[in-house]
Structure formats: C-alpha cells, structure tokens
Fold this sequence. Notes:
Structural class: mainly alpha
Distance between the termini: 53 Å
Low-confidence stretches: 1-23
Number of helices: 10
Number of strands: 5
Order of helices and strands: HHEEHHHHHEEEHHH
Strand content: 5-15%
Shape: flat
Radius of gyration: 30 Å
Number of domains: 2
Mean pLDDT: 89
Largest sheet: 3 strands, antiparallel
Amino acid sequence: xxxxxxxxxxLLVSVSVSGHLHAQxxxxxxxxxxxxxxxxxxxxxxxxxxxxxxxxxxxxxxxxDDMLTGTFQYSNFGVIDYRQTLMDSTTISDYNSAMxxxxxxxxxxxxxxxxxxxxxxxxxxxxxxxxxxxAAATVFAKAVVVNDLASAASQSDNIQDARALQDYISDNTxxxxxxxxxxxxxxxxxVEDAVQLYSAVAILKNDSTTVASIQQDADNAGRDYIYANxxxxxxxxxxxxxxxxxxxxxxxxxMTRSVDMSAYVTNNLSTIRGAGNTDDFYNDGPxxxxxxxxxxAQESDPSDACYTGP
Length: 310
C-alpha cells in the first residue's frame, strides 16, 4: 500500500511540474488535472492527519463520534474553507474526468519550444559547472591573501608583517595537493563544455530563420520534437546536434539533426578576455575584489571600506 501511495504522489508531482507550461493552450487539460488531483490530495492529507492524531491520543483521550469523518470548517486568511476526510462523488468524478482528458489529448512540441527547453537546461548545467569551478578554486583563491601578505612584508621589512604572513600560513590549510590541482583543471574544462553548449543553444533559439527551416523540415517529415534528445555541441566540428527517440517503427526519427555553428565561434583570446574584464564574475572574484576575503566584522563596520550594511 505504501508503495502504491508513493507512485500516486510521484504522478501528482509530475503533473504539477508539467503545469508550468500552462501558457500553451494544449496544456489546459494538465492544468485542470492539477486542480482536480489537488482536491484528492487534500482529502487524503486530512484523513492521514486525523488518523495520526487519533492514534497519538490513545491512552489520554478518546476521539468523539464523527471526529474522523466530519467536515472541518476553518478561516483561511479571512475566507471560510473546509477540510474533509471522506471522498465525495464530485471530487472523484472531476479527478477521473481530468485524467481521461489528459490521456486522450495529443501533445506535441515545436522546434522553438524544444530549443527553449534546451536553453533552460543548458543554463542550469552551466551554472552547476561554475559552482563546481568556484568550489575547486577555493584553495587557490587563498593564494591572493598569501601574495598580499608576502608583498606587504617584503615592502615594509617589518617583522610584524612577516609574522602575520607566517600566522596566516599556520592557521589555514593552504598546501595544494595533486587532487586539488586535478579537480581545478577538470572544472575549467567542464565549464568550457557547458558554456559552449549554452551559447550555441542561446544563439540558435534566437535565429528565427534557421528555426523556421528546421521546423519546416520536421513538418514535412512528420517529426515531432517531443521525441528529440538533448542537444550536444561538438567543439571540433563546431556543430550543435541532436538525435531522436521516437515511437517504434516510425523511421522519420531514425536520424540526427545537425546545425553548423562555425560562424559564431571565436578563437580570439583577446575578445574573450576583454568580455571578461567587464563581467561581474571576474570583478567580484578573489583576484579583483578587494573585499572578497572581508571578515564579518569588516562588513558590519561602517568605517570599513568593505562595509555592506547592518
């Protein structure tokens, strides 16, 4: 029974996620199912809650008649609402009808919708790769402090500055291991892969002429992009490509669609570095932001240059 309940709840969650596409008319049936299934979930939740309460009170209190089956009335931000534990015919009928509508509907995806989805996915992958890079760079970022303290000690010839450097090295784990080196280098390589895909999809999804051409090709072949696999960028070939996993026997999906992206590829390092000079990721990073390593005390001190407010 518990396994069945888990499967049911998983289905409801899946339906709720799909409902975010409600801007498209073809998803109206899913939106209806979200509301109908929520009614079932609310009744189920109330049943579990009251049974749990009755069981918890055994030995101290006896629940009265209709306490588990009666309708509970309460004020929800000034609006009278109700909670019930018994499944009524209207709720069941609405739920079954909504499920049947979804089951009998035809869902399709255009090339533009596919690319929009790939854009969101590739953006998330890029953000995750950046997070991994930042985590791998943490120990290397401390070299900025070491460099600043060492420079200050060298310029001042002051023993106290030298001791400050020595204390920082002693109080922190600064030694760089081979694993740290490997993780850092790998993370940059992963960012490169992620940003190539992210940028390629971003460019293509905004190229209305090419998108229209791909859509026409799909329409002529009877190819629905709901069956398209995730896009892959090939840095050597400079192409964005994707395959399909279509219904068995439908040969129009036995192919790979490839788009030449070479016109947008830059191998000019000056261009990349120049764009980085004005980006927040660089300017807020450890090598450029003088307050990157500011302490909580500095950030809360109005007289400190790194003060961020109360």
